[in-house]
Design goal:
6-stranded mixed beta sheet, binds FE2/S2 (inorganic) cluster, alpha/beta, about 25% strand, single chain, 11 helices, 6-stranded antiparallel beta sheet, Rossmann fold, binds flavin-adenine dinucleotide, Elongation Factor Tu (Ef-tu), domain 3
Length: about 300
Amino acid sequence: MTRLFYPYDITRESEMEQPLDFNRRSRLKHVDRAFKSEIINIIQLTDMEKLFQVRILDDADRARFSFLPGQFVMVEVPGYGEIPISISSSPSHRGYIELCIRRAGVVTSILHKAKRGAHVGLRGPFGTHFPIGKMQGNHILLIAGGLGLAPLRAPIFDVIENRSNFKEVHILYGTRQPSMLLFNYQYEEWNRIADINLQVIVEEGDASWTGPVGMITQLLDEVAIEPLETYAIICGPPVMFKFVCAHLQNEGIPMDRMFVSLERRMHCGMGKCCRCNIGSTYTCLSGPVFDYWTVMNLKEAI
Ligand SMILES: Cc1cc2nc3c(=O)[nH]c(=O)nc-3n(C[C@H](O)[C@H](O)[C@H](O)COP(=O)(O)OP(=O)(O)OC[C@H]3O[C@@H](n4cnc5c(N)ncnc54)[C@H](O)[C@@H]3O)c2cc1C
Ligand code: FES
């Protein structure tokens, strides 16, 4: 039978306190199905999130690797564990992928201590994607809350790079506080692109904040929506899906024109371990990207 679980002990708390030797190449020889990869750059985005640029070491594997917006990889930190992370870079960009990772627990904390040159394993890409092709010729709403901008960034790049294929494009992003905004160095660049409406809102402003304050649905009030000519991609916490999708439904957008990305705990990423299921649906295989109609028919999906 195929080995399903990561074979190392991931609970060695004491070792986490030691200076990290991330270049433990010897351990990587056990990683049979992962691409051996190197973290080539790390950008601190906020107190909690870092952007990792990760390069597959083998030239042939790197050239073959491709993904679609919305897909994720399993990132393995040798000796600690493996976690699902959405690919946050442009699907057309070859050479390395970008992963925006929030410090949440064991594996993500170890990654946050990693230095440039550290080695990780990458498996994937896995999962369903946002059907950007079918959205061509329509207005596009790209909506993210908090860390949701990480998975939304790949479709944003895809839409921007193929701007002429779409009608109006709106990027709407909300977080709790200005200090939590991800990729704020990129907003100016996105804003400069003709015909893209980028709006950012925070729930609580501070002295530096001059933009709007409130919930993300407030930004939707300012968008004139043509429901049967619009597709929406929504990434963020489940509570945000409920409010945003209800708002879009009220505007008349059919549920199968709204796409969300659902997160569940995952171990294998390939339908073997039964960790990610919602009823009989495996999120890693049938998701993480679902249309809203499907989500509403999955019991307790959000
Ligand atoms: C398809 C998919 C894509 C994801 N993309 C990203 C991404 O782009 N960036 C990012 O920072 N995170 C992403 N996540 C969440 C990320 O996988 C978890 O934060 C990570 O697995 C936590 O691992 P850990 O060992 O650090 O935490 P653990 O020590 O395992 O747990 C710490 C805390 O995080 C919670 N947690 C663990 N796994 C998940 C999960 N899957 N969803 C929600 N909470 C979880 C636990 O309940 C616990 O409270 C994604 C998850 C999925 C399923
Ligand atoms: S993560 Fe193992 S079945 Fe989905």
